[in-house]
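Service request form, structural biology core

Requester: graduate student, group of Dr. S.
Request type: structure prediction, single chain
Budget code: on file
Notes: please return the result as structure tokens.

Sequence provided:
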Amino acid sequence: MDNWAAKVSDLEGQGWSLTALGKAIGLSPQAVSDIKQGRTKAPSGMAAVRLHEIHQRIVLPAANDDTAAAEGEGAL
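Core staff response, request fulfilled:
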């Protein structure tokens, strides 16, 4: 996924606030909001690396857990 706005939205769906996400990646909450709203197309430098890493660590395992749970329900 190369869509930075979607990464921010995905993390919000996992309970992250814009303030917490901003602190974690080194940006202000307003800068994170700008990414989410598409006013900024992509974070720069280490903010991009950190956002990607957090998304990989938080969102992808949760998506895999949801898929596994749904597959397990269908097996009954």
